[in-house]
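Rotation project, supervised by the postdoc (A.L.). Task for the rotation student: set up a whole-complex structure prediction and record inputs and outputs verbatim in this book. Inputs entered:
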Amino acid sequence: MTYQTLILTIMSKTNNYVFWGLYVVAWIIFVGLSIEAGALIVNFFFSVYKPEFVQNLYQKLDLTEIYKESRLAFFGIYSFILTISLLKACLFYIVIRLMHTMDLSKPFNTFVAKQISQISYYTLSIGLLSYIARQLVKNLMHYGFNTDNLNQFWVDSQAFILMGAVIYIIATIFKKGVDIQNENDLTV
Amino acid sequence: MAIVVNLDVVMAKRKMSLNELSDKVGLTLSNISILKTGKAKAIRFSTLETICNVLECQPGDILEYVNDEQ
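Outputs recorded:
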């Protein structure tokens, strides 16, 4: 085996290990996000019907003060929180599905291109919704609402927007790659 | 597509089967089938040369231009 072949073999095996490591990490994050989304849904129902039990729940997200002062603000904020957390869980579900079905020896196919496009749309949606929610909550502070415990849900909005834009560019390039691959497959 | 592949006509004249042609040309059966059924988007000159050599014909015997309006 030549030196170059050896290096390529080691790199290929390392890439495989990195890929499978990322797959495991993606699964762990997906489970965590699903638990968080579920907990927020439970929190929501308890906040509306049994606010006294909220302190014993996951994250202890207590918006009962906002609920008493303005129901519109409460439902508005909670819908943003729930939508963003559900979108994050869906995003990682698509990532897991992509990594599970992708064949690294032949990655340029329509399914993978579509999944990458969907990942970019979900990421951009999360970023934009987080940004809009952050601005709305900032406005609510002027009306005397206490919103310090909500910042954790949209602190990473700009990062998601940046990531969404980058993934969109990658998805566009990947689609072109798929077209070239299809043309190559039909060249004898 | 405007380019029509008449490979089956030439194969019939030379009494050659698809399997035999694919063995002699060095292409897989699926690639020959793609060419024969007109699904191919492009053909390499090297492949065309080999096919013409095996079937003892000219490129014009295999490839024909038909105007789409006709």
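Student's summary: The CA atoms of residues 20 and 68 of chain B lie 33 Å apart.
Supervisor addendum: The longest strand of chain B covers residues 3-5.
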